[in-house]
């Protein structure tokens, strides 16, 4: 059974990269549930972390630590005295130079957690560590036992999946060596309303179809999940004693054609592309996957249409997207 709210008062957890898209929602949820939260950020006084200080319960139970993932001592200061750690900080990058940083950062967090004897570490990984495998049959169901093929990631220059896969494998190795109870969440592309001021990489995925910068859509499929659900999944696997291993986290897969259709239905005023850039090849099909493992813990997902609608509304409210009335036809 998940820990009851009364039981978590006095529980202290650390969230790395607390100002990020997923992490901000995670901090919000943890505070709502009564946890005391320590968030690591690059610079605690930076204006871009101001949204965290405004969260309900933040004044009483949130402290921000300026920490660098490459600096073990700064992480140790934040993690020492915590019951649990949520490691969400990781560079979203296609830069092969950053691969090393993701590995060192993961090692440092895991080592600090081991020294602090935390109860459990929850690691934010990605579906990118799971599905990149050219030898998988189209009928095979992608589940938590699947791993991306590192050589394939390298050869296709997919450095994001490469870095994520190596970082997750590193986390498992250190967990085993140092006896850390590790649970991993592997979300697909994360959408939803923004708490932070700036726009993050995954939300740009939708924004480009509304600003007129994308004239066509690609022949591709993508799995989507609501950011609030990803935060919920992190807390669920942290609070469920029997949770172990990896958990794929996704609500549904859409072809880009379906995505633009949903956007057009909700927001017809925007210059949303109607043409596919590839009209020669057959329409790409989604691969089969399962989220039964997460659902078995009681997880329920927000329907993706609702999530897409809320994402766009949030972009409008934050001033990242002009309101339809401001469009010159």
From TrEMBL:
Superkingdom field: Eukaryota
Gene Ontology molecular-function annotations: cinnamoyl-CoA reductase activity; oxidoreductase activity, acting on the CH-OH group of donors, NAD or NADP as acceptor
CDD domains according to UniProt: FR_SDR_e
BP term (GO), one: lignin biosynthetic process
Reactions accelerated catalytically: (E)-coniferaldehyde + NADP(+) + CoA = (E)-feruloyl-CoA + NADPH + H(+); (E)-4-coumaraldehyde + NADP(+) + CoA = (E)-4-coumaroyl-CoA + NADPH + H(+); (E)-sinapaldehyde + NADP(+) + CoA = (E)-sinapoyl-CoA + NADPH + H(+); (E)-caffeyl aldehyde + NADP(+) + CoA = (E)-caffeoyl-CoA + NADPH + H(+)
Enzyme Commission numbers on file: 1.2.1.44
Keyword Cytoplasm among UniProt keywords: no
SUPFAM superfamilies documented for this protein: NAD(P)-binding Rossmann-fold domains (SSF51735)
Broad enzyme group: oxidoreductase
Pathway assigned to this chain's UniProt record: Aromatic compound metabolism; phenylpropanoid biosynthesis
Residues covered by the NAD-dependent epimerase/dehydratase domain: 13-244
Keyword Disulfide bond listed: yes
Keywords: Disulfide bond, NADP, Oxidoreductase
InterPro entries registered for this protein in UniProt: Epimerase_deHydtase, NAD(P)-bd_dom_sf, NAD(P)_dehydrat-like
Family that this chain belongs to: Belongs to the NAD(P)-dependent epimerase/dehydratase family. Dihydroflavonol-4-reductase subfamily.
PANTHER family: CINNAMOYL-COA REDUCTASE 1, NAD DEPENDENT EPIMERASE/DEHYDRATASE
Protein name per Swiss-Prot or TrEMBL: cinnamoyl-CoA reductase
Lineage of source species: Eukaryota, Viridiplantae, Streptophyta, Embryophyta, Tracheophyta
């Amino acid at each position: 059974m998940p820990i009851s709210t009364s039981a978590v008062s006095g529980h202290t957890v650390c969230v790395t990269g607390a100002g990020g898209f997923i992490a901000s929602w995670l901090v919000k949820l943890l505070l709502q549930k009564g946890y005391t939260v320590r968030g690591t950020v690059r610079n605690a006084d930076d204006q871009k972390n101001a949204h965290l200080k405004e969260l309900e319960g933040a004044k009483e139970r949130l402290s921000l630590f300026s920490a660098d993932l490459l600096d073990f001592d700064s992480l140790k200061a934040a993690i020492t005295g915590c019951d649990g750690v949520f490691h969400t900080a990781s560079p979203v990058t296609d830069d092969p130079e950053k691969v090393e940083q993701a590995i060192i950062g993961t090692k440092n967090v895991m080592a600090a957690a081991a020294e602090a004897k935390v109860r459990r570490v929850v690691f934010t990984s990605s579906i990118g560590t799971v599905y990149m495998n050219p030898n998988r049959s189209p009928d095979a169901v992608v589940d938590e036992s699947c791993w991306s093929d590192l050589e394939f990631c390298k050869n296709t220059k997919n450095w994001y999946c490469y870095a994520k896969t190596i970082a997750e494998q590193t986390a498992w190795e250190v967990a085993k060596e140092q006896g850390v109870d590790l649970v991993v969440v592997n979300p697909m592309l994360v959408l939803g309303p923004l708490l932070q001021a700036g726009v993050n990489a995954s939300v740009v995925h939708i924004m480009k179809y509304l600003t007129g910068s994308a004239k066509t859509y690609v022949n591709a499929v993508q799995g989507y999940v609501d950011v609030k659900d990803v935060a919920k999944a992190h807390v669920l696997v942290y609070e469920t004693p029997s949770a172990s291993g990896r958990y794929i986290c996704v609500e549904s897969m859409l072809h880009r054609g379906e995505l633009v259709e949903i956007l057009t239905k909700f927001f017809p005023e925007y210059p949303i592309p109607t043409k596919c850039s590839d009209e020669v090849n057959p329409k790409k099909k989604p691969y089969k996957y399962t989220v039964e493992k997460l659902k078995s813990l009681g997880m329920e997902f927000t329907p993706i249409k609702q999530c897409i609608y809320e994402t766009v509304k949030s972009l409008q409210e934050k001033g990242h997207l002009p309101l339809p009335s401001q469009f010159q036809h």
